[in-house]
Write a structure and sequence with these properties.
heterodimer, A: 22-stranded antiparallel beta barrel, 42 strands, globular, B: 429 residues, Methylamine Dehydrogenase, Chain H, four-stranded antiparallel beta sheet, 40% strand
Chain lengths: 835, 429
């Protein structure tokens, strides 16, 4: 939501400084580009940053582009405590960029070494922030000794944080030079737990305050990403291209669209400078390699920004896992390979502020690792030493994004996303030999196949159309309306002729189609000088699924699928409200409520066409989520010796109803039968003790219990009511510290930072099943893990090298029962950026 | 499971019958509401009175389904009140439990990755202590164990297609019988697999009789054949495969290896229940076939096709029997599947698809027992003297019911309630 405030004198001064610095920097980088004068570059830069026009006084609607040299500076620039900013000037001309974990922005511009003659030669085609052309000419032609300028502003991250939603924002930039993944970051925030089943590339489920799997939605720039079974795919995205990660814990803004029960992760992709290159390579234990390369450039005449992206992952995951006999076995069939290629073109000279076309290709290939011990699951984890079976995925995606402020009408902002992914995936399991963990082999009992009930060579196709429309209208100053619609069409075509022929039956699920539409209408109100802000939303969910009926007792067609198509339609309404009040500029109270709905997935409605039958009467899961909390963000002092304290905490209460569960014995299907009640509190304390030292501690205490009154279908009281739901740790903590030293290295590397960091975590024990016996042994033990490392960033973070060790003590640990994770992991990462 | 059939000398048999008859008379005098053979007794007072006077009262080994997991526990007596899990241990699945010489042997679920058959001792307070285990290869699929003596037992590996002979006292593997060459390729086009899926084993006249389920790719659908392997217990060599391919029956016995699914009666005839691919393959039949153990051939003139017997159930008929116990004298009690009670789309929450029946293989009759219909979450049964103890998951909830097979009356409704759905119950004897 935009705000419109008339700039103060200090803001005008700031913009002058900004303009000058921009001119200087662009000249430095543009001097080798023929036919592209520094002035043109700067003009274009400014054009980007302000609706096509240069900064002018009184142009209070302008929002600087993130592509500009000055990042994330809003018009209504305020200080840390919401006071007006005054630009300070010192004799030193060193001004550098910084971005701090608190998400408030300090921007200092380095103007050392500027080629001022280049500036003087440039035609003065732009206007300075003062609105006076003659002033701008003199501003450009004069030497400018800016000294040290500190700019404080409200970043988009901070806006999200202060919206009243229960949300944690992660800024991955600091970690981009380390060998870390998205899930590594998510695991460190309060309320979030990642459940991995193995090494790099393995399935991982995210749990947010006890909500997990399909109940948590994953978005990329507001578009859903989820795999149908709820596992994450976000580790395919390198940290370098992520602007921020928003984790919503109980209430989700309507603008994200999608269904869900209040847990959501939104990954916002960074908008990089028009000319930019980024190369990185990381290596870690168990032969894990992750190269990444990104390059983009800008063609001025047509106004096209064009970029190429490549990333890859290779992992052997050959760590040792314990055996039931007390020994260990090195995992020898867990190789993971991933490739992502993308190209994108931003068209800058069209009616739209931004028009982007993107093509993406992703390929995954993963060997399936068997486990020797009891895992309590059937078929998912093969109970033998698998040596050949693997699964693969290819995804092609074409996407269009368009956004326009003042679209058709004044005050109406428009954004639109359209994507067409095509997924092609399969499971290959055709070995005629099976193996144990002691070097012995024998013919496959099924004839062919190492896992499950027979061979597979599936080639499943899935075609989707996704579109998302967002309209934002500033009705009057404190009140804005937002309309958001997310539409998704899925055509699922599983195919496994090999398995069908081998079985003599059609055991492959039938084709299915799914149409979902989520429409959200929200209003945002800010009153009392924006101390009080409330966003309320109404959501409508529509779900239509088409598949084939199943028969219980096939006649002559050798299939459980009938020829009759079946349609399941669901409608639902949800709503939420999030409010916050700033008692002081640094102390905020917030509260929110959501009535959420999660639509059934296609496989829940139509089963697998064989033993899991259709569930056409399936209804959405529902939740009522209540969250209340506070947020304190207080700085003491200024400059490098400032101390900053951030303390936040939420209490949450959630009732989940009509939870979908698979049941039945020989013949199964899904039914709405479970209920849960979640009570908890989580929070985080962060301390920045000068710019040299940072520490944090966060906590999560969650009580997730069965809340079903009677045994399903009976009048008997449910003996599990009030018992903890299994596989959810009741509490966990994270803590860490980081020491940063500045400019202690060689002169050529300056400005540089040396960071020494440590992170620890503790997760309580939790049971694999409901706790009904005094003699239960199947549990995941409590564990404490320690990670540490060092990172050196040079030349204003353009180059970095980091070395770290995860699980220093080599502690054996699990996220899921009897599915061991890797022990100590050494990591090395190198990165270089060019702007 | 103990597969050796109890032999009762006639004088004892008569005495027991008289005693029970007298008891029943006494109950009738004291309880004017005593039900007829076609009614269900819902009086809890009469349930308590009956339970305290009956001959056998346990103990029982019970595998229950709680949440999404299985637990193994001991119920000492139905007089102890509701059954809870507080003394139970985690069970790696629910296919079979066996009792021998004071110990419980529990194989793991063949798909859940368990790699050992666990051996428990039963403590005085009805808790279980894991004493030892028999290692098995991951994914080999251990099946129902047949105990021959204190030093000899056989365990089929259903998925691997082997039978392991072991010493139940030392738990040492003493021999291995390879049946993989007897795996049958399906008709007409699917490829061969490498396991004939051996399940229930019984012994008679120094021979092992092994049901070969011969399923399609372990997918619980049978090929068009019923086979029983005959193995010499001295040499462990396969003597012959008794086979029937002409009548459409399929899938002999089952993974639980219960006595009512394959047994030898007092006349020396072997009866084997065929599951008929759970009704999923059109044209395949479920029911009982008979083998003459003197010639080791199927009696092609004798069969019980379960679907041919009209019963007062939804749809008028049953198809396969999931759990069954042999009570002697040609009588089998079982939990039978009622296809007409199954909704489409499936409603496993409310459908009561199993009914308890009495099958008389000597007279070829089938009767419906006066017990409530149940879902498959709770269709389990065991014999305790002349009493049939059955599990139920019905509209009232989960519990154990007792059926007096002599008076043909039900004791309690339920006799006791249970925490969890009882999926297996065994009288420990």
């Amino acid at each position: 939501m935009k705000t419109t405030n008339k700039p103060s004198y200090y803001e005008i001064l700031l913009r002058t400084i900004t303009l000058s610095v921009t001119l200087v920097c662009q000249t430095v980088h543009a001097q080798d580009e023929p036919g592209n004068t520094a002035a043109d570059s700067v003009h274009d830069q400014l054009s980007e940053s302000q609706d096509g026009d240069a900064y002018t006084e009184g142009d209070t609607d302008a929002t600087p582009s993130r592509d500009s040299v000055v990042h994330d500076v809003k018009n209504d620039v305020k200080g840390k405590d919401n006071e007006d900013v005054s630009a300070t000037s010192q004799n030193s001309s060193d001004i550098t960029h910084e971005k701090e974990p608190s998400d408030l922005l300090k921007v200092n511009e380095n103007v050392s070494g500027v080629d001022r003659e280049k500036i003087q030669e440039s035609p003065s085609t732009m206007t300075s922030v003062s609105g006076n052309e003659s002033d701008s000419e003199s501003a450009i032609s004069k030497d400018v000794d800016l000294g040290t300028v500190t700019v404080m502003g409200t970043s988009e991250s901070q806006e999200v944080k202060e919206s009243g939603f229960p949300v944690t924002i992660i800024d991955p930039e600091k970690f981009a030079g380390r060998a870390m993944s998205v899930t590594d970051l998510l695991e460190r925030i309060p309320g979030v737990k990642i459940k991995r089943s193995g090494g790099v590339g393995s399935a991982a489920h995210i749990s947010i305050r006890g909500l997990e799997g399909k109940r948590v939605q994953i978005y990329i720039d507001g578009s859903p990403l989820n795999a149908p079974d709820g596992t994450l795919g976000i580790d395919d995205i390198p940290l370098h291209v992520i602007e921020r990660i928003e984790v919503y814990k109980g209430v989700v803004p309507a603008k994200l669209g999608g269904d869900g029960l209040g847990g959501a992760v939104n990954i916002v992709i960074v908008d990089l400078p028009p000319r930019y290159a980024d190369f990185s390579y990381s290596f870690q234990s168990y032969n894990v390699h992750k190269p990444m390369a990104l390059a983009k450039t800008y063609f001025e005449k047509p106004g096209i920004e064009w970029g190429l992206f490549f990333s890859g992952q290779y992992a052997d995951n050959d760590y040792e896992m314990p055996m039931p006999d007390g020994g260990t076995h090195t995992r020898d069939h867990n190789r993971f390979r991933n490739l992502m290629l993308a190209t994108a073109a931003h068209l800058k000279k069209t009616y739209f502020d931004d028009l982007e076309l993107e093509l993406v290709y992703i390929a995954n290939d993963q060997q399936i690792q068997g486990l020797p011990g009891y895992t309590g699951t059937t078929a998912d984890i093969p109970a033998r030493n698998v040596q050949h079976a693997k699964q693969w995925t290819n995804i092609w995606l074409a996407a269009l994004h368009a956004e326009k402020d003042q679209f058709l009408f004044d005050k109406l902002d428009f954004s639109y996303n359209f994507a067409v992914p095509f997924m092609y995936s399969g499971l290959v399991d055709k070995s005629d030999t099976v193996y144990d963990f002691y070097g012995n082999s024998s013919p496959s009992p099924s004839g062919e196949g190492e896992i499950g009930n027979g061979p597979n060579d599936s080639k499943d196709k899935r075609f989707e159309i996704r579109q998302k429309l967002n309209l934002n209208y500033q009705l009057f100053k404190p009140f804005a309306l937002n309309l958001n619609n997310q539409l998704q069409y899925t055509d699922n075509r599983p195919q496994d002729d090999y398995a069908d022929e081998y079985a003599g039956w059609q055991i492959t699920p039938g084709n299915g189609k799914l149409l979902t539409s989520t429409t959200g209408f929200s209003g945002e109100l800010k009153l009392f000088k924006e101390k009080w802000m409330t966003i309320a939303a109404l959501k409508h969910y529509y779900f239509k699924s088409r598949g084939y009926e199943t028969v219980l007792y096939p006649s002559a067609n050798d299939s459980f699928l009938s020829d009759n198509e079946e349609v399941n339609t669901n409608n639902g309404l949800g709503w939420n409200i999030a409010t916050r009040y700033k008692i002081t500029p640094w102390f905020m109270l917030k509260g929110s409520y959501e009535r959420g709905q999660r639509m059934p997935t296609t496989d829940e409605v139509f089963g697998d066409g064989f033993t899991i039958k259709t569930s056409p009467l399936l209804e959405p899961e529902k939740s009522d989520n209540f969250i209340a909390g506070f947020y304190i963000d207080k700085a003491f002092g200024e400059g490098p010796r400032a101390i900053r304290v951030t303390l936040e905490s939420d209490a949450f209460l959630m009732y989940i109803d009509d939870m979908i569960r698979l049941g039945g014995t020989l013949t199964k299907n899904y039914a709405n039968i479970d209920k849960a009640k979640i009570i908890g509190v989580d929070g985080e304390l962060k301390l920045e003790l000068t710019k040299y030292f940072y520490t944090y501690f966060n906590w999560t205490i969650q009580d997730v219990r069965n809340d079903l009154d009677n045994l399903p279908g009976t009048t008997q009281k449910n003996y599990l009511k009030g018992k903890r739901i299994p596989n959810i740790p009741p509490y966990f903590f994270n803590w860490g510290a980081e020491v940063t030293l500045y400019d202690i290295m060689w002169d050529w590397a300056k400005p540089c930072e040396l960071s020494i960091f440590y992170d620890g975590s503790h997760v309580s024990e939790f049971f694999f099943e409901y706790e009904v016996s005094e003699f239960q042994k199947y549990r995941v033990d409590a564990r404490v893990l320690h990670d540490a490392g060092v990172q050196l960033s040079m030349k204003d973070k353009r180059y970095s090298v980091s070395f770290s060790v995860d699980n220093i003590a080599d502690t054996r640990h699990y996220d899921l029962y009897n599915q061991p994770l890797a022990g100590r992991i050494f990591k090395l990462a190198l990165r270089g950026t060019f702007r | 499971m103990k597969t050796k059939l109890p032999t009762i000398r006639k004088p004892e048999y008569l005495a027991i019958i008289v005693a029970i008859w007298l008891t029943a008379l006494a109950c009738e005098e004291t309880n004017s509401n005593s039900p007829s053979s076609s009614e269900t007794d819902t009086s809890s007072d009469s349930a308590s009175a009956d339970v305290t006077t009956w001959v056998g009262t346990g103990p029982y080994g019970i595998v229950s389904f709680v949440g999404e997991s299985y637990f193994l526990g001991i119920l000492n007596s139905l007089n102890d009140g509701p059954y809870t899990q507080k003394n139970a241990v985690e069970a790696d699945g629910m296919h079979s439990i066996h009792y021998h010489n004071g110990k419980i042997y529990q194989p793991p679920h063949y798909l859940m990755g368990g790699t050992s058959v666990r051996v428990f001792t039963i403590n005085a307070n009805n808790t279980l202590t894991l004493e030892n285990s028999i290692p098995v290869a991951a994914g080999s699929g251990p099946g129902p164990i047949h105990f021959v003596s204190a030093t000899k037992a056989y365990m089929p590996l259903v998925v691997s297609g082997l039978i392991q002979e072991f010493n139940p006292t030392t738990l040492a593997i003493t021999d291995e019988i390879d049946l993989r060459s007897y795996a049958v390729g399906s008709t007409p086009t699917a490829g061969d697999d490498n396991s004939p899926e051996p399940t229930t084993i019984i012994s008679h006249n120094n021979k092992l009789y092994v049901a070969l389920t011969q399923t399609l790719n372990d997918m619980q659908m049978g090929r068009d054949v019923v086979q029983v392997a005959v193995i010499d217990m001295v040499t462990n060599d396969v003597e012959t495969i008794i086979e029937d391919t002409s009548r459409g029956f399929t899938m002999p016995s089952n993974m639980a290896g219960e006595s009512g699914t394959m047994f030898i009666d007092e006349n020396g005839d072997l009866y084997v229940h065929c599951t008929g691919s759970w009704g999923w393959v059109a044209g395949q039949k479920a029911g009982y076939l008979r083998i003459d153990t003197t010639t080791n051939t199927f009696d092609t003139t004798w069969e019980i096709d379960l679907s041919k017997f009209p019963l007062n159930v939804a749809g008028g008929k049953i198809d396969y029997i999931n759990r069954a116990v042999y009570a002697g004298n040609g009588i089998v009690y079982g939990a039978a599947h009622v296809p007409g009670a199954e909704s489409n789309p499936v409603d496993w929450v409310h459908d009561r698809i199993m009914s308890y029946v009495k099958v008389d293989v000597w007279n070829k009759t089938i009767e419906l027992l006066p017990l409530p219909a149940t879902s498959m979450y709770g269709a389990a049964l065991t014999m305790d003297g002349d009493y049939l103890v059955v599990a139920e998951y019905n509209d009232s909830g989960t519990g154990l019911y007792v059926y007096n097979t002599v008076t043909e009356t039900v004791v309690g409704s339920p006799a006791i309630s249970t925490e969890g759905s009882v999926m297996l119950i065994r009288k420990l004897e």
